[in-house]
Write a structure and sequence with these properties.
Number of strands: 6
Radius of gyration: 16 Å
Number of domains: 2
Strand content: 25-35%
Structural class: alpha+beta
Order of helices and strands: HHEEEHEHEE
Largest sheet: 6 strands, mixed
CATH class of the largest domain: Alpha Beta
Number of helices: 4
């Protein structure tokens, strides 16, 4: 979201605090609206008709040039790059390859669609925590991504297509 969109969604009187259930409901509602409009794209993994995983992958040109949360995903359309913005895997399905399968599919589709590269931004820390939605560096490494830059908090993983 842009800064203005984020302010409109979260800076109203009575807005629940992060990470309360009320705040999460606002996020779910916004994501639903963005999916319906086509602004939010990605992949779902299912087991027995139940969604167990999500990977948000989108053309970098579809992101705002200056997002509300400070993410710098935007690139002009002529760059033809995609970004992996987040993963969410149901706890009981973590560690068995669901995120890897989603990422491999995203890479395959990006290549087939004529994109030149795909990137993901990982957080650097010692252990997983609930809001670690970017995926670990090792996930990207095992699917052929390489680290192209880093700072003390994040690393940019990239795969040329």
């Amino acid at each position: 979201m842009t800064k203005a969109e984020e302010k409109a969604a979260f800076e109203k009187p009575g807005t629940p605090e992060f990470p309360s259930e009320g705040f999460i409901q606002i996020l779910r509602s916004l994501a639903g609206e963005q999916i319906k409009s086509g602004a939010l794209k990605g992949y779902l993994a299912y087991v027995d008709n139940v969604s167990i995983g999500w990977c948000n992958v989108n053309d970098r040109a579809n992101f705002p040039a200056e997002s509300g949360n400070g993410a710098r995903f935007y690139l002009p359309p002529e760059k033809r790059e995609k970004i992996v913005a987040c993963f969410e895997i149901a706890p009981e399905f973590r560690g068995i390859g669901v995120a890897t399968a989603l990422l491999r599919r995203a890479v395959s589709d990006a290549k087939a669609e004529g994109y030149t590269a795909i990137e993901g931004i990982t957080r650097k820390h010692g252990k997983r925590y609930e809001w670690d939605f970017t995926g670990p560096a090792r996930l990207y490494e095992k699917t052929g991504f390489v680290k192209v830059s880093e700072d003390d908090k994040t690393a940019v993983m990239r795969k040329e297509l």
